[in-house]
Amino acid sequence: MITVSRRSALMLAAAAAGGAGIATLALNAGDPPERVSSPPPPGRARWSNWSGLHTCDPEALAAPADVEELRDIVLKAKGPIRPVGAGHSFSPLVPTEGTIVSLDRLKGIVSHESGTATVGAGIRLFALGEALEGIGQSMEALPDINKQSLAGALATATHGMGRAFGSLSESISSLQLMTADGKVLECDAERNAELFAATRVSLGALGIVTQARLKTRGPLRLRRRTWFEPIGDAIAAAAERSRSHRHYEFYYVTFTGMAYCISHDETDTPVTPRKPNAENEGTEDLMTLRDWLCWAPWLRRLVAQGLISNQETEGVVGPAWRLLSTDRPKRFNEMEYHLPEAALKACLEEVIAAVERHSEVYFPIEVRFIAPDTSWLSPFFERASASIAVHMGHTQDHSFFFRDIEPIFRRFDGRPHWGKLHSLGARELAPLYPRWREFTELRRTYDSAGRFLNPHLRSTFQG
Ligand SMILES: Cc1cc2nc3c(=O)[nH]c(=O)nc-3n(C[C@H](O)[C@H](O)[C@H](O)COP(=O)(O)OP(=O)(O)OC[C@H]3O[C@@H](n4cnc5c(N)ncnc54)[C@H](O)[C@@H]3O)c2cc1C
To answer: Fewest beta carbons less than 10 Å away: which of 35, 80, 144, 285?
Structure first.
């Protein structure tokens, strides 16, 4: 996620280690090889999430062409049913032995007028951005990748960055929900209002969202700026910058003492060409530094700081839907908690100290700000939040997230991102959500047989 060239990193690392009179021995911190698994049983297709952490061999993987086909699947499926989007969640929300249903074919713009667009819930965010641009509209905010389906992003309260914006679920003004009996319910502030408050962030546990109406705005062009600075300065300036920029976030670049800051502000200056995404090469370079110098933290820090001080800052102008989201070809697993804003500094300092006790880490720590939400199970429910996310390479052992990092988040009153790793069950979750009881009652009303539950959701709502 930082912009350094691998070759220069290696040369500098070698020079620094040689200059210090230490053999330039590449000590690989030892990522285990890719997981090898047996093939699925005959007649079954394997499903896997993006990071490869969760797999299952469902009885059926269905992609209905329309709502009638979807109803047929819901009514005839014998076992549990789990809706799926792009499989980009790190938590096991989707795996089932029963039926996995994808709305990949329900993805068009159904209708639009000034300030709103109604779309098929299976549309991916990158396609949504492009389609909205085609009708002179734009979303207000987007997450840092755009591969997710709209329905998947809503279900977990996926968010972008920006103190003025809640999660994507806040941009929904109405939606259609197919419940376990095959009925399609219209939900908005007037019709099924309680269900509307529950369904916008529902983990796919109330039924299948088939269509959503979005609140949109006219075309949005942004200027993106990136720069490095000492982490202490970034923490001190964070609250003010989150107010003065339309979108602001920063990463702590682990084992460097430095932050990588990103701001986006509205502009009407002409679009500029953007270089290929160098952030991923930067992540590779951090991994290489880890491999070479994990045995000498002081040297690792020195070399990284030398590299960072030579970095160009980025200044680029483009449409919001292209600039706010980037590619993440290097796979990882992630834990993210959302905290009361005032807890950010103290919590982040503890998290950094805990992460840096693990020299095998090389991914940065991400910090964002999000406005309060109104959906009952949004982790931003009625709370202005700062979020902190920790990442670990997808083949690496991430068990220290649960052992060392999650207890810190919990002490600071954090609520976990539903789509990312966490270990909380119903007992721990209920006190975090003022409308928990109402949500679980609605869930029992609309799905009394638990047809939309898998083991993870049973522990979420019943465990
Ligand atoms: C590289 C990467 C970057 C990410 N960046 C961000 C980020 O910047 N901000 C952020 O907040 N999160 C981020 N995430 C997390 C991600 O946005 C969420 O986990 C999101 O839910 C994934 O969407 P999906 O379409 O892949 O859904 P899936 O992971 O397939 O499913 C997620 C949930 O949605 C439900 N669902 C899917 N379709 C429907 C439907 N039609 N009706 C009802 N329920 C449905 C599923 O049952 C499940 O509970 C990132 C994840 C990855 C892998």
So the answer is: 35
